[in-house]
Write a sequence for this structure.
């Protein structure tokens, strides 16, 4: 039996547990510091066993996944180094920053166990085991940050196990990881929170702000609902990178101030053109549970029952729809429905079928 111990069975730990549980020869043990959480892991069927004992979870494990907030990783690395781990055990983490945990693991003595840092580039603004999903990592990138001295066979063994997540494994140096992920994940979270709090302030004087907030505001601020402790730990941990990025961000904002002060419409237009061109050539490979799965959009007349009609049509063709969302619905314009699917094949067949029956499909 391959024993996988998961410390912190929340959104990420729970999603990993779901990927591994029930696979041939695998048993998954979940660890929580709280009795009630351990009981919940079992109740929800996410793990085979659950315990509050670090020793019980770790001993005899072939793989240990640390899925707790970044600020708690160092103490787990230390505590694990005090145990008699199974020879050849692979310890990995899923923390959103990689340099500090790599440094800390380099200092620790794990006997013949090894540490390989990891970070799945998938997630959501939701948290806890309730938000875990078997599909979370499918098609996403999963970063590994092995030390140059780590024997390849361990990296291969972890990579082989992670195949159950259906993610694409990439190797990145820990410091490089923190710089890049600072820009494409941590900074956007700061911007989203600052923007929501700005509007929250305005809204105290006039509740029309929140009432009128539509798709644009929601799209750019979804991530502001992330778990406060998880994000506190990430931002504090990646402080140096973020301070530099925030300076660059401020320069970008100053540039917009300059464009507007000088009424330089041409510069504004260029900024949108450049951003749009860059964004459209980015690989659309993101995966999530509700968002950015495999999506297409269809123009629909704004009349009652249209959602049911489209859903029935897809159902009749055995096409699995995972989400349906009205983006615009006013009397004088056609509405747009966003249709999400979990598989490329479902999306392809939906595009074909909806096109056949006369819908304008965009993807
Ligand atoms: N949320 C995301 O989108 C995302 C994506 C990739 C990686 N990560 C990383 O994954 C890790 C877990 O994040 P999550 O989103 O699954 O959070 P979560 O809140 O859903 O899960 C965290 C788990 O850790 C436990 N926990 C919290 N504080 C703890 C402590 N002090 N000691 C022991 N256990 C504790 C919680 O009970 C929970 O089981 C973090 O390191 C985060 O940086 C998050
Ligand atoms: O999709 C989201 O909601 C996320 O916040 C996921 C996200 C990201 O910023 O892209 C968040 C943290 C991670 O460590 C990796 C992915």
């Amino acid at each position: 039996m391959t024993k996988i111990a998961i410390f912190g069975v929340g959104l990420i730990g729970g999603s990993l547990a779901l990927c591994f549980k029930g696979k041939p020869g695998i048993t998954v043990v979940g660890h929580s510091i709280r009795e009630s959480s351990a009981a919940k892991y079992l109740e929800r069927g996410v793990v085979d066993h659950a315990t509050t004992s670090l020793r019980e979870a770790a001993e005899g494990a072939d793989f240990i996944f640390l899925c707790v907030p970044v600020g708690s990783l160092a103490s787990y690395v230390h505590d694990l180094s005090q145990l008699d781990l199974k020879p050849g055990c692979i310890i990995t983490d899923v923390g959103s920053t990689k340099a500090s945990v790599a440094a800390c693991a380099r200092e620790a003595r794990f006997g013949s166990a090894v540490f390989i840092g990891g970070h799945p580039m998938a997630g959501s603004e939701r948290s806890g085991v309730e938000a875990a999903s078997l599909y979370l990592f499918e098609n996403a990138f999963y970063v590994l940050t092995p030390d140059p001295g780590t024997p390849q066979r361990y990296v291969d063994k972890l990579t082989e196990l992670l195949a159950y997540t259906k993610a694409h494994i990439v190797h990145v140096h820990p410091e490089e990881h923190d710089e890049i992920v600072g820009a494409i994940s941590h900074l956007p979270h700061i911007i989203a929170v600052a923007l929501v709090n700005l509007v929250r302030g305005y809204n105290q004087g006039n509740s029309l702000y929140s009432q009128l907030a539509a798709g644009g505001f929601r799209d750019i601020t979804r991530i502001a609902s992330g778990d406060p402790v998880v994000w506190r730990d990430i931002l504090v941990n990646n402080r140096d990178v973020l301070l530099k990025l925030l300076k660059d961000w401020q320069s970008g904002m100053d540039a917009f101030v300059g464009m507007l002060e000088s009424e330089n419409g041409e510069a504004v237009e260029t900024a949108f053109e450049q951003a749009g061109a860059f964004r459209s050539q980015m690989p659309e490979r993101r995966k999530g549970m509700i968002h950015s799965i495999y999506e297409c959009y269809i123009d629909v007349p704004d009349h009652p029952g249209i959602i049911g009609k489209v859903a029935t049509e897809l159902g009749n063709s055995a096409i699995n729809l995972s989400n349906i969302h009205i983006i615009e619905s006013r009397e004088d314009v056609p509405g747009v429905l966003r249709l999400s699917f979990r598989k490329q094949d479902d999306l392809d067949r939906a595009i074909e079928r909806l096109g056949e029956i006369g819908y304008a499909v965009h993807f």
Remarks:
- Residues 174-205 form the longest helix (32 residues).
